[in-house]
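Late entry, guanosine-5'-diphosphate complex.
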Amino acid sequence: PLPIVAIIGRPNVGKSTLFNRLVGKKLALVDDQPGVTRDRREGDASLLGLEFRIIDTAGYEDEDAATLPGRMRQQTEAAVQEADVALFLVDARAGVTPLDEEIARWLRSTDRPIVLVANKAEGRAGETGVIEAMALGFGDPVQLSAEHGEGMGDLFEALLPHV
Ligand code: GDP
Ligand code: MG
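Prediction complete; structure with ligand written out below:
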């Protein structure tokens, strides 16, 4: 069976955009508005010749603010537990948010490998967010632009030891 890679992170960081790029088909809906209901999706992905199964976590956008963290936590932890490695995405342009920090706390107790990814890192608008991400406790982030396809070689190198 193929190794499993999970994409996790709060809504709107670019998880589905990365999923689409790696699967190469428009299987996951991408929308500018957080709040669109999107389910968890799986697909066969390929990255510079590396083949793996990929899980896009989502489907909690319709939850109200009071229950969102609990639902996100359940889905995030389930996907991470299934995975050989998890990609923890943050938004370099938005910087690290309290929800990112909460997810980082959930992940601290897992035995699964976590690769931190600062997405939306194209251009200079992401520089501060990349530096903030270093404080999350998962090392230096892979700088990526899922939308523009930048940083895919660095993502490959970060995944290689785990798949
Ligand atoms: P998800 O909720 O984490 O699945 O995020 P989406 O993949 O739906 O993306 C949310 C928004 O971020 C969309 O408007 C995307 O076009 C945008 N986005 C995704 N990746 C990038 C990127 O690399 N750079 C920029 N500037 N925007 C991105
Ligand atoms: Mg999504």
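The longest strand covers residues 41-47. Will revisit in the morning.
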